[in-house]
Structure prediction request, 181 residues.
Amino acid sequence: MNHRICLSLLFASACISMMAQPRITSITYEGDEAILTRNNPPAGVVYYWQGTSCGELMVNSDPTYVATTSSTFYIRAYLSSSASWASSCASTVVIFPDVIAPVLSGVTEGDVEQGNEISATSNEDGMIYLVPLGTAADLGTINAVKVDEAAVSAGVPAVFPTAGLSLGDYIVYAVDEAGNI
Prediction:
């Protein structure tokens, strides 16, 4: 809503137009897109999506904006009757959640003699767990039955000693920092 405020002091007066500010009212994630939705402007005001903080592009005034990258997104009000921009703008940060599980490579396979090492490499930072074969791919279960664990950086192998390890069949799970298994 636009408001016009006028002040009078003896022989001088001034009028200031105040316009409703845009707001980003929701973000909906759909696959690899984030759909940003804004509020509706009052009559005579147009809300424009901006690429920079309080930019002045008059390209996109759609009620929604589709983001495909994590970034900060801006929207600014433009008062058509006076051809002027609002002094401030709204912004929001879009961060796409990590939903991709890490990939293991270089995993020691086959029979391993006690005293030899088991190694595995993850393509993401996180944890690698050594667990009994048959353990469900669930972080709570993995933590409950883990035989060993190692914090890892992407591309750096985790090495698990087998000295003292009970005879049996084991597997490794990689879990990234977002909890993907």
Summary: Residues 104-176 form one domain.
